[in-house]
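Hi support team,

I submitted a single chain yesterday and got back a structure, but I'm not sure I'm reading the token output correctly. Could someone confirm the output below corresponds to the sequence I sent? I've pasted both exactly as they appear in my results page.

Thanks,
R.
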Amino acid sequence: MTSPLPARPRRKSRSLTEEVVSALSEQIRAGTFRPGDKLPTESAIMESLGVSRTVVREAISRLQAAQLVETRHGIGTFVLEAPRENALQVDTNSILTMLDVMAILELRISLETEAAGLAANRRTDTQLKAMRQALDDFEMHVRQRTGNAVTADVAFHLQVASATGNRYFHDILEQLGNTIIPRTRVNSAALADDDQVSYLNRVNREHEDIYNAIARRDPEAARAAMRTHLTNSRERLRRAQESAGTQS
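Hi R., thanks for writing in. Yes, this is the structure output for that exact sequence:
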């Protein structure tokens, strides 16, 4: 892939090299450039971002040090598979009980509340469209009762994490995978004495509140909406656990 990068404004507080590193690494982590793809030429990057050849070469060197790319002399620079050896690992196999799921929700409340606020400040129009698509997919699956709403639900939360511009938010949630949605391990609707469609419609309204706050770039409202959404999930599970305890 050799399509040029879009021009982007530079912040005065960051060096030109850091700006190029950021631009290229964001494209790689967003999947615009996938493992095996060839990056644009030095000249193309220079023209797109308005920097010198020295800056581009320094940026490429930093990406090489981070094991994001490799340069093959006389051929070009290619994207590598993202290194995972030193990444933070969450053992999802240990998430077995309702108490485990509630513990994950506590982690998510802290993590995703801040992620929503950052996303409201940093999201791009493209990222916002991806969030909208995930919510539309969620609504479609609920309406058609296909049973695939979880995939769209996970996609929405991952899109919010991506919009922070901080890959670690996304990395942690991606590791958790479908376990970030409690109903993949327990039937939340049944435990909440609710029918599945009504339950999922309520979840989607909570998603819409998060989306709308991010869309209008209101970080405090986004944080509040995400906290409400995840706290509601935790509360439903807490009530379910108490109910199960009284029946045992």
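A quick pointer for reading it: Strands lie at 69-72, 76-79. Let us know if anything else looks off.

Best,
Support desk
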